[in-house]
Specification:
Length: 316
């Protein structure tokens, strides 16, 4: 039914996406007048108004991933273009990784592994580490993923507080109206917030130092949320204890100062990167396009496009 609809892929489509699209659509590798849908799979292209001018018949942008700070959804919605993303299917995976990264950072798991492999256990036991016991975790961004992390932290008997745009009355955790207040109250800052202009560098020197010398920062949201140079300085000057980072400001480039630090844990943005979850995300990228061009509306439009997606969805 969709054989004639032209879809253009931006970035490198995972095999499941490439095959799923090829089975349903006419997939083209570059901008053409015929393109009515984009499948955005990573890459560094900013999908904004000037970019979509290359595609005059564009109706929908289906993006791989829950975060869409590389897409100007407001501008696209104004032009009548619906943006979709892949929420929910990666929530548990990213939350698992966040908990693992927190434990790895606090108990120094990568460093301990390196110690054993270097034969040092034969000489003496690994030095005692800091602990998760008695810590209070401040979650920055209590959305779907933040809440899934909170549930896991509860199972670890940890106290939880949070900061976000607004308090969530249905949530039992203590809300802090300011990020600084959250950092002053906690000794772990779990960054889950999405990227974009609104959150850029909100974790700054003052916030980092408020965590105190035992402070730990974990980031599974977006690298841009933390002022990376301020983080390097806080770690170097021992204003905080350690950091576990899955995301960075200028991926895949990671500051040499961080790489040289033995007391941090650094991951190459692997929060959702299991075969299972990446397949589920890829399937949702394809399903959104199939649903849209099959006249059934978008399955998972981003909030900025929900009204538009509903108004365009077929009635009944
Ligand atoms: C992916 C992510 O690494 O969903 C997101 O927002 O950051 C990750 O799940 C990314 O989308 C891959 O391009």
């Amino acid at each position: 039914m969709n054989k004639k609809v032209s879809i253009c892929t931006v970035g490198t489509a995972p095999p499941l996406v490439a095959q799923g699209l090829a089975a349903q659509f006419d997939v083209v590798g570059e901008a053409s007048l015929e393109v009515r849908g984009l499948a955005v799979c990573g890459g560094h292209t900013r999908i904004d108004a000037p970019f979509v001018e290359l595609f005059p018949r564009l109706e929908i942008v289906s993006s791989f991933g829950v975060g869409y700070d590389h897409i100007d959804a407001v501008s696209l919605a104004k032009r009548g273009i619906v943006v979709t993303h892949t929420p929910d299917v990666l929530t548990g995976e990213v939350a698992d990784l966040a908990l693992g990264l927190l434990i790895a950072t606090v108990r120094q798991l990568p460093q301990v592994d390196r110690y054993l492999r270097a034969g040092k256990w034969l000489e003496r036991p690994y030095p005692l580490t800091t602990t998760l016991r008695g810590r209070k975790v401040g979650i920055l961004g209590l959305g779907r993923i933040g809440k899934a992390i909170a549930r896991r932290l509860e199972a670890c008997d940890l106290e939880i507080e949070y900061h976000g745009r607004k308090p969530q009355p249905e949530v039992a955790y203590r809300y802090h109206p300011t990020l600084l207040g959250l950092a002053q109250s906690c000794d772990v800052l779990m960054v889950v917030a999405s990227g974009g202009a609104e959150t850029r560098h909100i974790v700054n020197q003052e916030v980092l130092e408020a965590l105190g010398p035992d402070g730990i920062v974990i980031n599974v949201g977006r690298g841009t949320v933390i002022d990376e140079q301020a983080l390097v300085a806080a770690l170097r000057d021992k204003k905080i204890l350690s950091a576990g980072l899955d995301v960075f400001e200028d991926e895949p480039r990671v500051p040499a100062e961080l790489i040289a630090m033995e007391h941090v844990v650094l991951l190459p943005h692997v929060g959702s990167a299991s075969v299972h979850t990446r397949n589920a995300m890829g399937q949702l990228v394809v399903d959104n396009l199939v649903s849209w061009f099959g006249g059934k509306g978008a399955m998972t439009p981003v909030p900025e496009c929900q009204a538009l997606a509903a108004s365009k969805a077929p009635k009944g």
